[in-house]
Amino acid sequence: GHTITSDCDITMPLELVTLPCLADNYAYLLHNAETGQTALIDAPDAAPIRAALAERGWGLELILLTHHHPDHIDGVEPLREAFGAKVVGAAADAHRLPKLDLAVQDGDVIDVLGLKAHVIDVSGHTLGHIALHLPEIGTVFTADSLMALGCGRLFEGTPDQMWQSLCKLRALPADTLVCSGHEYTASNARFALTVEPGNAALSARTKDIAAKRARGEATVPSLLSEEIATNPFLRADLPEVKAAIGMAGASDVAVFAEIRGRKDRF
Ligand code: ZN
Ligand code: FE
């Protein structure tokens, strides 16, 4: 577990567990040791989540869903049944999510284990994808919007929507912990180096990622500051990135769309 030691104005002891599920998904458990309550962010598969809860003697009070894809929701019903957990997701996606106890939208602030969670619409990968930002613990759950060294493929949204979504996330405090939904980082790094072969921070991070994967460790969560320095999808507005892909002077969105297109074909 990752014990959150952020020196924010909270006194409760919180633990964050990054949980591998399915082939390359991540779910996250957030546990408040004071109240004994636990929240889950995304439910790819009930079995590993139940095992992780059982191992720690935790129940499950809350399930927060980022978007409707099966690899993020398929574990909901067995977990709801086993623990009586309440399920929260985007109102815009209520028709294609498991039954919601609370439907939320951009700008809402909800209670998660006694902490404030800000709902941010981050449409692009899907329409209705949300991120949850918990400023008191400096953590944002982004699933398939902003990912470690990447971003989700544009299945439903336009490049402009995803670029706007990424800009909202980029504007969070730089020391925010980014909890994303997949272990795609090594492949993302190989692609990122084709965009910015001269980015020294990216080269260093790529080595670090390879070492982590060799040890069987997760490369998430990551720090927003590292993403800002190395993630090509957050850097589409920089003159040096535009120049590096032969698009000097092009619009930010056009450059983002080109980088996303290249990644699709990578
Ligand atoms: Zn997805
Ligand atoms: Fe996914």
Can you put this structure into words, describing what you see?
The protein is of the alpha/beta class and about 270 residues long. The protein has helices at about 45-55, 70-75, 75-85, 160-170, 185-195, 200-215, 225-230, 240-245, 250-265; strands at about 1-5, 15-20, 25-30, 35-40, 60-65, 85-90, 100-105, 110, 115-120, 130-135, 140-145, 145, 150, 175-180, 220-225. The strands form three sheets. The chain has a seven-stranded mixed sheet, with helices on one face. A six-stranded mixed sheet has the order 8-9-10-11-14-15. α5 (about 185-195) packs antiparallel against α6 (about 200-215). The chain starts with a strand and ends with a helix. The mean pLDDT is about 95.
